[in-house]
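Q: What would this complex look like in 3D?
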Amino acid sequence: MARRQITGFSNPTVKYLRSLREKKHRKAAGKVLAEGLRLLTDARESGKVPEVLVMAEGRDPHPLLAELEAAVDAAGGEIIETSDDILAKITGKSNPQAVAGVFAEWDSSLAALDRSDAQIWLVAQALRDPGNLGTMLRTGDAVGAGGLILIDDCADLFSVEAVRASMGAVFTQQVAMARWEEFLPWLRAGEGQLVAASLRDAVPYRGAPYTAPCFILVGNESQGLPEDYEMACDLRVTMPMRGRADSLNAAVAGAVLAYEVLASLEG
Amino acid sequence: MARRQITGFSNPTVKYLRSLREKKHRKAAGKVLAEGLRLLTDARESGKVPEVLVMAEGRDPHPLLAELEAAVDAAGGEIIETSDDILAKITGKSNPQAVAGVFAEWDSSLAALDRSDAQIWLVAQALRDPGNLGTMLRTGDAVGAGGLILIDDCADLFSVEAVRASMGAVFTQQVAMARWEEFLPWLRAGEGQLVAASLRDAVPYRGAPYTAPCFILVGNESQGLPEDYEMACDLRVTMPMRGRADSLNAAVAGAVLAYEVLASLEG
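A: Here is my prediction, written as structure tokens for the whole assembly.
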């Protein structure tokens, strides 16, 4: 049982944990930082146990925390106890959640995806807002999607912000990252309908001929999808735009479409 | 034509403008700060002209900027030119958009709302994320809603974050703020169906008997709606939840429901 206490702000482990909030350091370390008992419990129930668990000293006992500690011990992980102040420094919040965990980043290659797992998949192209990525994961969980595929340069799916916005779905949904040039041949090597919201040569999104597995493609927050990406889709659909704007928030557009596809496929 | 240049970081106007990013100061001043030519043009086209326009010196000429300057001049407003550095200090961004505007906050009383204006209204209860509020405004614009009503203690709808996330809809959608105790009597004093996503005594959201004007109520991000608020609704609907979680992001839930109501009312 690996347990230790950290009492100094300048402890290298404190610096290391704090550095995981920055994309560069997080990626280089190949780790994922998640905060809060609920999120860490979601992870555990999904079979993902942190390598390192950091807890505030003197926290209230909680059965879920006890289960988490047991799981970390059983997996040979490390448990660190520290003060509220140091935990606040690690999490960058004045009112830190009393527990944080560090996970080894998991496989996010396209080759590891099993498209037969689900009828719906979400695909995000160059999304820059980690909150939008997390929200798409959460929506994917809700519609029973298989997972989220990130195309081109997206925000960091394993950032603290995205993990938090996913409400645990980052641990349950499959995730993959690929360039468009890799994704399209992969998609075409098997069954799959690629669908995008579009204004080009599109049909109304309600009652459109969706087929499973349906891959719902959502484009960058400000640019939308490149035209050639849209034209590579099997189906382009439009959503009503009754106001001045011609687009929705990316995560919202994906969700409205995903619920329509779900209703259509379960019809 | 009121124009002046500001060259010093410690200029009181710079401090004042910068203070408007904080809720406390923004509210006390009764002003709304918005950044970016597109957003300010949306405002102008909706009849809202900034009292103060702040621009970077040496910016490229742009016909929309020229129109904006003319509108501010015509309305007796002030135009301030300053350096990129000072603009960055005001906006708190290293790469500031070249223009920002300060508006007088407008009327957000329930009494000013005209429910006959639209078939759909969005209602947010205790939403704490300004991005969610902005996203709901943007969705409201898209579905042709009349506006957004904030119930109880919500995030600041006129914050820079909410204004930005609204993509200009904060200028076109009607907005009102009220306590639940004010809102419910106001609602019941006229026509209106109050609808919430709920797990209590609810019917499937697809094909539910929506009627106009339909008020779609979305609850707090972590607590959801209080039970008595849900029970005061005319219609409670459920959305499929196929995964581990039992809820969607608040702005996403509102959007999926709003698009369903739109399809139903137009059906």
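A: To summarize the key features: The mean pLDDT of chain A is 93. Chain A touches chain B through 35 residues (CB under 8 Å).
Q: Very helpful, thank you.
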